[in-house]
Write a structure and sequence with these properties.
345 residues; alpha/beta; TIM Barrel; eight-stranded parallel β-barrel; 9 helices; disordered N terminus
Amino acid sequence: MIPLLFARCKEDANDTNAGKKELLRGIDISFLPQIRQYGISFKNQSGQEGDLLKIVKENGVNLVRIRLWTGNPGKHSGEDEVYALAEECRNQGFKILLDLHYSDTWADPGHQTIPASWIGLDINQLKDSVYRYTFRVTSKCRPDYIQIGNEINAGLLWPTGHISRPASMDELLKVGCNAARDAHPAIKILLHYAGIDGSIDFFKKRNETGIDYDIAALSYYPYWHGSTIADMGNTLNDIRFYTKKEVMIVEFAYPFTLKWSDHTNNVIGLESQLSPGYPATAEGQAVFVRTIRTVCEKYKAKGLCYWGGEWVAFKGDTSSNGSSWENQALFDFDFRANPALTEYR
């Protein structure tokens, strides 16, 4: 049973989403090129082997999200790999969401490490680098949607763009958004915040500084963000009301088991990390995805995007540096599609 949801009713006022629009039903597939190197054979719900992209498309996925790191373009999540994957997905009919980290590695609320080649630049030089880089990768990749930063609660490109230096942070965000718009005028631009607490004020302040973006995007992991799905829905509603922007859940996930399939420590492995009413079972995961989708539709969100759905234990069952997420993937330990994937149809 889907838990009851209670919300403040502001969605009718200044509705920026008037009219029925297709819901973006996405998954992040950034690990896929690496997984393919290990010869993993994904399976649909009937056990038939097939390419992951084909399987997810048959289940209703219409958007793929791909992260891009700076640095060596030949590395995983580097430019060469990302451009090729984006082109393959575009040719199969998917919308593309390009996730710019502005870092040579992971960027999140606790890590926004400036690219090695940009260390030592003053604010004007850094703005120029951000503009040129963003314009170039947008022009080459031609995504439908683009994130200017990943989980930028505390800013980006530290220390210059740390939120403790709000003027510099907003200047960097402005030039990133402007570069993407200049390179591809029809693109939709996302700013991405992790969690619920503080998100409304964050986006209101970005509006006040005149940043040119289209979608306020959230990560929502209840075991990290400590909120209920009802709270998440209310927050989406409030962000739309106060900012007049579209909203989207751009990252979420939930476990289908607390077991593991390799020797890499998993992010989730304890009953205490679960949300009430959502057991760590295949059905529990499916209900969680269904509820997220229901809330997104209720509050007229642009869409939802599952993170790590493809991140199975691809390096084998004894690997200690494989997947810390295989029990939250959308495929089971035999690489067969979980029932949760059907919730995208």
